[in-house]
């Protein structure tokens, strides 16, 4: 497992797989891969409810980074692109969410699952 993460560290341009930026980038990469897998399964099974809850959770995530930026009074990397993509996502999924408000409730559960995944990933990467 260590060889895999160190290879990933070299691939993304850091020389040390114990660097904090590497850990954050590895977790973001892992989350993106999971998102692509879930999108593929949603397309295959023609059911996009779970994928929509992930997109809603992403919008919550972006809003959290906006508040973080305001609170810290500094730019947080990715906030501007996050605002643009969250706005576009909101526009695209508005009709689906309006038809099924339970997606909003399920999105909080999805957000909790994402937070647990991130916490477990950080713990795993600290052991390496």
Please characterize this protein's 3D structure.
- This protein has 128 residues and is mainly alpha-helical.
- The chain has 5 helices and no strands.
- The chain has helices spanning 2-12, 20-45, 49-72, 79-99, 102-127.
- It is globular, with a radius of gyration of 16 Å.
- The mean pLDDT is 86.
Keywords:
single chain; 128 residues; mainly alpha; 0% strand
Describe how the helices and strands are arranged:
Layout: H1 2-12, H2 20-45, H3 49-72, H4 79-99, H5 102-127
Helix pairs in contact: 2-3, 2-5, 3-4, 3-5
* Total DSSP helices: 5
Tell me, what's the shape? globular
Q: What is the N-to-C order of secondary-structure elements (H for helix, E for strand)?
A: HHHHH
Number of distinct beta strands: 0
Q: What structural class do helix, strand and pairing data support?
A: mainly alpha
Q: Helix proportion of residues, in percent?
A: over 70%
**What oligomeric state is this?**
single chain
Low-confidence stretches: none
Strand content: under 5%
Summarize the structure.
By secondary structure, the chain is mostly helical. The chain has helices at residues 2-12, 20-45, 49-72, 79-99, 102-127.
């Amino acid at each position: 497992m260590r060889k895999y993460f160190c290879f990933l560290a070299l691939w993304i341009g850091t020389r040390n797989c114990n660097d904090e930026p590497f850990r954050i980038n590895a977790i973001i990469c892992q989350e993106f891969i999971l998102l692509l897998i879930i999108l593929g399964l949603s397309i295959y099974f023609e059911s996009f409810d779970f994928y929509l809850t992930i997109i809603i959770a992403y919008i919550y995530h972006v809003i959290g980074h906006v508040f973080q930026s305001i609170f810290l009074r500094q730019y947080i990397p990715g906030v501007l692109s996050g605002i643009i993509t969250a706005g576009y996502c909101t526009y695209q999924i508005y009709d689906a969410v309006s038809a099924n408000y339970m997606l909003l409730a399920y999105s909080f559960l999805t957000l909790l699952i994402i937070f647990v995944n991130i916490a477990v990933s950080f713990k795993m990467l600290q052991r390496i």
